[in-house]
Amino acid sequence: MLARATTYCIDGLDSRRVSVEIDVRQGLPAFVIVGLGDLAVREARERVRGALLNSGFEFPLRRIVVNLAPAHLRKNGSGFDLAIACAVLAASGQVKAETVARYAVYGELSLTGAVRGCRGTLAVAQAAAQHGLDGLIVARDRAAEAALVGGLEIIAVENLAQLARVLGGLEPAPDLPVAVEPVADEAPDLADVLGQETAITALQIAAAGGHNLLMRGWPGTGKTMLARRIPGVLPPLTEAEAIEVTRIHSVAGTHRGGGLITTRPFRAPHHSISASGLVGGGIGPTPGEATLAHHGVLFLDELSEFHRGTLEALRQPLEDGHVAIVRGQRTATFPTQAMLVAATNPCPCGFAGDERRCTCTDSDHARHQRRLSGPLLDRIDVVVDMGRPSADDLAGPARSSSAQVRDRVLAARERQAHRLRGSAAHCNAQMAPAQVRRFVVLDARGRAALAEAYERDFVSARGHDRILRVARTIADLRGSARVEAADVLSAISYRDVERARAEAVA
């Protein structure tokens, strides 16, 4: 007897429809799975057999062939277990085949028959809705995540026996569990950072326009403290952004099915990370930290300690907002529209400029500078040097708080959203060259200042447009519709262009 069930395979960030076809016929008892499955798919035979028997069902002692179609698509993961079990029950007449065919089925089985959640449930639910299926059958601990997709019936089950009773009409579908989000820790406040008003101003500009930021200074000056407070001043995620972020983290396995992610991601990988770990890769391939930080912040602490090849892999994702990973004959595209925030010391010992404390030689300084290439620094819009705060600064009151900065950032973002409505850009840093020419109109003084910087080779052609974007953000923070010469000069001062050029030559 032949039976079918529908499930999905996670491919990059997408989900591909898979038809589970089962043929049960006379012959020597066998259980074969074909269709280009990985080891986890092949091991489903034992999990399905054990789950059926331990749930009180009959396992047919016949020749069973399971075909996962289309056969050319590589299947991975344990999410096929539940669909295979449902198809076996339908083929053996233990549940109605027409009822199983109405739903998509996605989940892993334990040997006891319990249904376990799998990564990528939100992506599967979205695909099931697009393909016009009546509903999706998932594990109970993933139901809140799947329920984010409207217009799709979600059947959340705890075990295989319960699923059979629901499909057979012996009991109604259970109520969906209420998503309980973990209580988030209180966001750290900028008021904790004392004596760094210049750096806080640079942070405000970067957050308001979504610009990349580099903080450079001696150890202990507050670089990491500032970086970890950036999510607290960024605007909240829109509904579309929250769905996209939740989908990414669900596919990556970092979201445990608690519902919608409402806070902007903040990813801070260790400097020993590989290039594939940062931008994505692997056999899958799977998303990297740059994608997990999508719509959020990617913080690279001790930037000069990262392997140069790892940092160079970031160049194209920073420019394009996405990265295409090619492995064998497969290509996966991952979004990388994250705000890059980096911190570094000025030299290996960290005390460059202090002859009493700096122990680095000229060759040490040269090697340290070469670790950060000119093309990478050219993609950083705002560079700020952080000095050592004075004793009076540390003893005095805070001058800025996250609430104050957030209000100014939100006001600037609202102006950008109004200006860029209807386009793919959401902030000034994402403006296309045509939008830069349209929305950044300089007066004579501003054009002269920018032309002088460019003619003296202080900025590249890329840097020319990035200065205009930063100047537009500074004007937005002032509440001005016009970009003035002072805004351009301020944007030029935030680019470490001379150093980038020297390092590129080196």
Please provide a written account of the structure.
- The chain has a five-stranded parallel beta sheet. The chain has a four-stranded mixed beta sheet with strand order 1-2-4-3. A three-stranded parallel beta sheet has the order 5-8-9, sandwiched between helices.
- It contains 23 helices and 16 strands.
- A hairpin with a 5-residue loop joins β6 and β7 (115-116).
- The protein is elongated, with a radius of gyration of 28 Å.
- Mean pLDDT is 91; it is low at 497-506.
- The chain folds into two domains: 2-167, Ribosomal Protein S5, domain 2; 190-422, 3-Layer(aba) Sandwich (Rossmann fold).
- The longest helix has 19 residues, at 402-420.
- With 506 residues, the protein is an alpha/beta fold.
- It has helices spanning 39-42, 44-54, 81-91, 97-100, 121-130, 143-146, 160-167, 197-209, 223-227, 239-252, 275-279, 289-292, 308-312, 315-320, 362-370, 374-377, 391-395, 402-420, 433-439, 444-455, 461-478, 485-493, 497-505, and strands spanning 2-11, 14-25, 30-34, 63-69, 103-105, 108-109, 115-116, 135-139, 153-157, 213-217, 266-267, 297-300, 322-327, 330-335, 339-344, 382-386.
